[in-house]
From TrEMBL:
Tree of life domain: Eukaryota
PANTHER family assigned to the protein according to its UniProt record, in alphabetical order: BETA-ALA-HIS DIPEPTIDASE, CARNOSINE DIPEPTIDASE 2, ISOFORM A
Name of the featured protein: Peptidase M20 dimerisation domain-containing protein
Domain Peptidase M20 dimerisation: 210-368
Family: Belongs to the peptidase M20A family.
InterPro entries noted in UniProt: CNDP/DUG1, Cyt/Met_Dipeptidase, Peptidase_M20, Peptidase_M20_dimer
Organism encoding this protein: Marasmius tenuissimus
């Protein structure tokens, strides 16, 4: 069953309205990782709830409790659950997305204000969260608006789960999903899950995604003196926390991306020729990567190695050092306490449970080798397991048909390098098939400066998600 032409025309006609609504969403600074914006994330949860209620969805807020940040209790933003339709003759589709965003400041290098959606003449909609993940969440809203205003029944029963902590470890969400998946819970009867929260590999070819890497995120704290010191007065007299930290961080990963923590890299199988062929066939080139990152700095010139680096290998990244001097000028200080941040993206069979003890043991051994009198502590921040789905399921068939119908192209089947920890929880708690059907392109710059979503991806992506619902109804009676 193809999506009705009236739906596709409606999406085209309403394009400017949809973009204005995206602009309203982007304007709410729902940064989950920074406590000062927590009220904005909560405001965003109300905005989302009101918007979905207005198009006929029964919505509720689900309290996720509190989190402790630096000794202080902080309210978690409530999750928004929605439902529409309960026809036993239809499939029930659960969609997941998030309304929180990564931090963004103009001074990070943005060309425009990150929380003001800038509509460029070339069709780019620039603003934090435009692609990750407010645009895709609003894509579902656009579809529901058509059915509500035109008094058309949806081809499936619709359920949604939107959260405001995805960029910060999805605190509290696993427990909620497990609860709501039980008989009588909000997700009872769900037949499949669709997540739109990732990207094409390039700027041409749509993708359907059947895997995500997991994640384990650490804080490495080194402290010594009671306060910051004058480096002229105390340099070469004391063990410097920053020197210790840099020594430790330099032993985690080498410049070729090899993880130096014993047994982490070699927990993963080596791809055989048949598997390498899957990566060879992807519409993905070194030039695509270079254009997305804005430089020619890939670790290899072999496309398969680079693609596998993102999709089927673990990676360790050093993110930053809290407490280090980073301003302009030349402050001659010895920081008293520094906190290194690093994370490892995980692939099967790796999980935080089997990787974290290896990291802890290694850090302790390496710190002991330094002979430092400073104190060193490793803290696990948050994490999630990797996920790989079953592409032979009708859910994937529906997404493939929808992609062909809207884009006239065969989608690339990808595994994503990013992490959405709740994906595996949906798959396991509900026991149903899960897929990712992204809206944005590979050069959207999610998490980066000048994040954008192309107008055509927002509009055609809305059609894609809507068509997918019709294809489910057609295939899976
Ligand atoms: N679009 C998915 C995404 O960006 N996920 C984040 C999740 C995360 C975990 N910790 C911080 N963010 C990702 O980085 O993959
Ligand atoms: Zn996201
Ligand atoms: Zn993200």
């Amino acid at each position: 069953m193809a999506a009705p032409k009236e739906f596709l025309d409606f999406v085209d006609t309403k394009a400017d309205f949809f973009i204005q609504r995206l602009s309203d969403a982007v304007a709410i600074k729902s940064v989950s990782g920074d406590p000062q914006y927590r009220s904005k994330v909560i405001e965003m949860s109300h905005w989302i709830k009101d918007q979905f209620s207005a198009v006929g969805v029964e919505t509720v807020h689900r309290d996720l409790g509190k989190q402790t940040v630096e000794g202080k209790e902080l309210q978690l933003p409530p999750a928004v659950l929605g439902r529409l339709g309960n026809d036993p003759g239809k499939k029930t589709v659960l969609v997941y997305g998030h309304f929180d965003v990564q931090p963004a400041n103009r001074s990070d290098g943005w060309d425009t204000e990150p929380f003001e959606l800038t509509v460029k003449e070339n069709g780019q909609l620039i603003g934090r969260g435009s692609s990750d993940d407010k645009g895709p969440v609003l894509g579902w809203l656009n579809i529901l608006q058509y059915h509500h205003e035109q008094k058309k029944e949806l081809p499936v029963n619709f359920r949604c789960c939107f959260e405001g902590m995805e960029e910060s470890g999805s605190e509290g969400l696993d427990a909620l999903v497990e609860r709501e998946s039980k008989p009588g819970g909000w997700f009872e009867g769900v037949d499949c899950v669709c997540i739109s929260d990732n990207y094409w590999l390039n700027t041409r070819t749509p993708v359907i995604t059947y895997g995500l890497r997991g994640l384990t995120y650490f804080k490495l704290i080194v402290e010594g003196p009671a306060r910051d010191l004058h480096s002229g007065v105390f340099g070469r007299m004391v063990h410097e926390p920053m020197t210790d930290l840099i020594a430790l961080m330099s032993k985690l990963v080498d410049v070729k991306g090899n993880i130096l923590i014993p047994d982490v890299d070699n927990m993963v199988s080596i791809a055989d020729d048949k598997e390498r062929e899957l990566y060879e066939r992807l519409d993905y080139s070194i030039a695509d990567v270079e254009s997305a990152i804005g430089s020619s700095t890939t670790l290899s010139s072999d496309k398969v190695e680079v693609a596998m680096g993102r999709m089927r290998m673990p990676s360790l990244s050093l993110h930053g050092i809290e407490g280090a001097f980073y301003g302009t000028g030349a402050k001659t200080v010895i920081p008293a306490k520094v906190i290194g941040k690093f994370s490892i993206r995980l692939v099967p069979p790796q999980t935080p449970d089997n990787i974290n003890p290896l990291v802890e043991k290694y850090i302790n051994e390496e710190f002991a080798k330094l002979g430092s009198k400073n104190k060193c502590k490793l803290e696990f921040e948050h994490g999630g397991k990797p996920w790989v789905g079953d592409i032979s399921h009708w859910n994937y068939e529906a997404a493939q048909r929808a992609t062909r119908a809207v884009y006239g192209k065969e989608p690339d089947m990808t595994r994503e390098g990013g992490s959405i920890p709740v994906t595996l929880t949906f798959a396991e708690s509900l026991g149903v098939n899960v897929l990712l059907l992204p809206m944005g392109r590979g050069d959207d710059g999610a998490h980066s400066t000048n994040e954008k979503l192309d107008r055509s991806n927002f509009i055609e992506g809305t059609k894609l998600l809507g068509t997918y619902l019709y294809e489910i109804a057609a295939i899976a009676k």
